[in-house]
Amino acid sequence: MENASFSPVSRVAICGGTHGNEMTGMYVVREMQRQEADQTGSVSITTVISNPRAVEVCRRYTETDLNRCFTKALLSSPITDSTPYEVRRAQEMNALLGPKESQEAVDLLCDLHNTTANMGMCLIFYSLDWLTLHIYKYIQSKMTSAPVRAMLLTIPKSEAYSLESVGKHGFSIEVGPQPNGVLRADIFNMAKEAVDHTIEWLHKFNSGSTFEEGEVEAYTVVKTVDYPRDPTTNEITAALHPELQDNDFKLLQPGDPMFLSFSGETVKYEGEDLHPLFINECAYYEKKIAFHLAKRITVTLPSISVKKD
Q: What ranges in 147-225 are assigned the alpha helix state H?
């Protein structure tokens, strides 16, 4: 593959508290603010608590999910008395860090999240962005405290709904398992280490280092699975089977236990071999998602370097 070159990545945003009960990102951002880490070498860093109202009450959101408010339609919608707070806040964030899909947007936006699922360290990307995928490869090579994996969303950036899509380049970091409203030292340290490695990579890239071609694995979502439900009441009638619980990324094959009904019956999986992600994620109950099912793919990366003047 031919070498790919990119402009220097000099303006970076690190965000936490997009969901107000996911504590790690909020405290990583506060620690960076305490250390006044707004300029490190070639990188200017903006740190933001994304949803301060939700953080204050330790809830995922106050009116609607902020991390679904960054579509072009919502970012350009008129503000009225009935506009939810999170839509207003999304437009404020877009003005601060964007505008989305403009030359004025920050060069890289990293949004920090927690999951209650046993996902370890998972980076989430829109599309095949060679620069952010090289950052993933670098973090994966440096971190030993937990497996580092990637989830690739096949959504055009113009339709992307989450905060990281505001930057020219962007990704979110999901770290878990961690209960909502709880701060765990091991999970905090994993997220902080990933942020530190990201900034370290940016310094190397901006100073002229070439990152050689290679391969990374990623997971692409094929479908989502809901809980079994009562056809009359729509209430769930089963929980995740103990043999599936906490086995994120482990291959799920036909006949494997999937749910255990409240009356004691096992519901088995039927379908092609796929990998379950975000198993029993707390925030997904309202979205009627028990877990995602994904394919594992291999992505070949070109070598990349900073674009010469």
A: 185-206
Give Rg (Cα) of the chain: 20
Find where tokens 């989502």 sit.
224
* Binding-site positions: 19, 22, 113
Per-residue pLDDT of the chain (309 residues; tens, 9 = 90+): 789 999 999 999 999 999 999 999 999 999 999 988 776 788 999 999 999 999 999 999 999 999 999 999 999 999 999 999 999 999 999 999 999 999 999 999 999 999 999 999 999 998 889 999 999 999 999 998 889 999 999 888 778 999 999 999 999 999 999 999 999 999 999 999 999 999 999 999 999 999 999 999 999 999 999 999 999 999 999 999 999 999 999 999 999 999 999 999 999 999 999 999 999 999 999 999 999 999 999 999 999 999 986
Residues tagged in the binding site annotation for Zn(2+): 19, 22, 113
From CA 169, how far away is CA 242, in angstroms rounded? 38
174 counts as catalytic: yes
* Active-site hit among 63, 174, 272, 281: 174
CA-nearest of 289, 16, 13 to 167 is 13
Per the listing, tokens 């962007």 go with: 170
Rounded CA separation 13/94 (Å): 12
Q: Is residue 300 a contact partner of residue 139, using CB atoms and an 8 Å limit?
A: no
How far apart CA 118 and CA 202 sit, in angstroms, is 29
Q: Give, as one character, the DSSP assignment of residue 308.
A: P
pTM of the model: 0.95
